[in-house]
Design brief:
single chain; alpha+beta; two-stranded antiparallel ribbon; 5 strands; 15% strand; globular
């Protein structure tokens, strides 16, 4: 076998969620970007939508609708489920958040404004979630879809495992 033959391809991946970073700066810049986007597009970035995004940005883990409702209620917003659901629906529809189907919960988008196919890595120990941009597969699912005449519009990858922090704790 020649060098490189059969070896895995080297890929550059930027996963947001597991690495150390300026979290306060991350939150401030994401909120500012959302405000600017909404202003440019004529979208109403209401106080409850702003707070819901801020809550999602505070942690790199997915938050369920009822936890969101509790946090919004604690922040002085309404206590009826539609308050949380409408805010989350707005954030997802406008690319500020994603729904993690595996957890039936939501997370702030790590790449707002970018058209991308997200891949989510979910830690089964601490429930943290990292988002990376994934390249749509050119084989497997795409081949099956093409063969059946199905047109894939959106693909989301959700993988469950152990994050670097929890793996280090387990090795210690």
């Amino acid at each position: 076998m020649t060098r490189g033959e059969g070896a895995p391809k080297s890929i550059s991946v930027e996963a947001v969620g597991f690495e150390s970073h300026d979290h306060a700066g991350c939150i401030a810049s994401a909120l500012k970007a959302a405000e600017d986007h909404c202003a440019a597009e004529g979208l109403r970035f209401t106080p409850v939508r702003h707070k819901a995004l801020e809550i999602l940005l505070q942690e790199h883990r997915a938050i369920g609708a009822y936890e969101m409702l509790d946090r919004l209620r604690d922040a002085g917003f309404g206590s009826q489920p539609p308050v949380a659901y409408r805010a989350l629906e707005f954030l997802v529809a406008n690319g500020f958040a994603h729904k993690i189907e595996r957890l039936n919960a939501f997370i702030a988008c790590a790449h707002p404004g970018a058209t991308h196919s997200p891949a989510f890595m979910i830690c089964r120990v601490c429930q943290s979630v990292a988002e990376a941009q994934s390249e749509p597969s050119r084989d497997g699912l795409s081949d099956v879809a093409r063969a059946t005449g199905f047109q894939i519009e959106r693909t989301v990858v959700e993988a469950e495992g152990i994050c670097p922090s929890c793996a280090e704790k387990a090795d210690a």
